[in-house]
Amino acid sequence: MEDTASRGIQAFIADVVERGGKAVRLTHSRRNPVQVWGDDGTSCIVRVRSKLSGDWQARKQDESLDDDDTGSQFWVFVDLASSPEEFFVVPSSEVADDIRAEVDLWMMDTPGRTRTGHHAIPLSRVAHGRGRWDLLGLAGEKDPSRYSDAQRATTAATLRADAAARASARKKPAKAAAALEELIDTRLEVVADFEGYRLVGRFDPDTQTLEIMRGPMQGRRFPDPTTAATAVASHISGDIETHDGWEFWRTEQGDRIPMGQNSIR
Predict the structure, then answer these.
(1) Exposure of 253 by Cβ count < 10 A (0-12 exposed, 13-18 middle, 19+ buried)?
(2) What are the E-state strand segments in the chain?
(3) Domain range for 23
(4) Residue 177 counted as domain residue
(5) What angle do CA 157, 162, 167 make, to 5 degrees?
(6) Which residues contact 145 (CB under 8 A, 6 or more apart)?
(7) Are residues 141 and 21 both part of a single domain?
(8) Contact 92, 67 (CB under 8 A)
(9) pLDDT number for residue 153
(10) Are residues 58 and 122 both part of a single domain?
């Protein structure tokens, strides 16, 4: 989610400064790039992925460096559930090779799949990058006095404003009848997790329509779960995605959504 991403970037920037460096969030990509300057003045671009629980989320297309519009040299995986936060620094080329190998195995398991969609990265695959600040030209020890309360507040405010602007740009005008519809809404609530976003929808088993209630493309209604899944995934990733809606969407309990007599697979 955007709040998780912003929290992760804020925590990362704070650590960079406390280790004698400098960091600035870049805005040319939605993939959370940050430019980092080490304490020796050298510069690099990193992609920051953050999580509060479970696995970090990437895309299968991240197997190719050509698909990375950030021009990153490293990925930084931020675990916000740890106290203090933990950071795992891995070269972008290594991340791409790792994802490619995993996608190869996934493709072999079921021929005919496409190399698109979200891709989970568990801790075991990045654990070797724990605390590798040296890769970014930064000190191993922190000096909290380097990052003042004023800097912390300014960074937090900037990231909150950026998150709000992005969320506002994605939202569609609400319909006047939305509040009334919510009061009598008997549709099934369904959810999906994609690239760090928790999507919430309402599925009508009788008509097969699915409306996105929360997340990117909020307020959009689609004729079936597959059309909804494909549209919202493509919107988030910026690529052409194809997803089976009956696998993409689940109930809060993790069950498949019911297929009506009019459903098309």
Answers:
(1) exposed
(2) 22-25, 33-37, 43-51, 56-59, 74-79, 86-91, 118-121, 188-194, 197-203, 210-214, 221-222
(3) 2-169
(4) no
(5) 125
(6) none
(7) yes
(8) no
(9) 57
(10) yes
Nearest to 237 by CA among 103, 61, 63: 61
Single pTM value for the model: 0.59
Does residue 174 lie within any of the structural domains?
Answer: no
- 202 with 156, same domain: the answer is no
Domain contains 26:
yes
- The one-letter amino acid at 174: A
Same domain, 238 and 132: no
In-domain check, residue 240? yes
Number of domains in the chain: 2
CA distance 199 to 192: 5
CA atoms within 13 A on the CB side of 52: 10
What are the average pLDDT values for consecutive 10-residue runs of the chain, which has 265 residues?
80 93 88 91 94 92 92 97 95 97 88 84 96 93 71 57 56 48 70 90 92 90 94 89 93 81 50
Give the type of residue at 108.
M
| CATH number, position 17 | 3.40.1350.10
Cα 247 to Cα 252: distance, rounded to the nearest angstrom: 13
Q: What is the pLDDT of residue 177?
A: 46
Distance CA 85, CA 168 (A): 29
Q: Which residue has the tokens 């994802």?
A: 99
Tokens of 120: 């989970």
- What pLDDT, on a 0 to 100 scale, did the predictor assign at position 17? 92
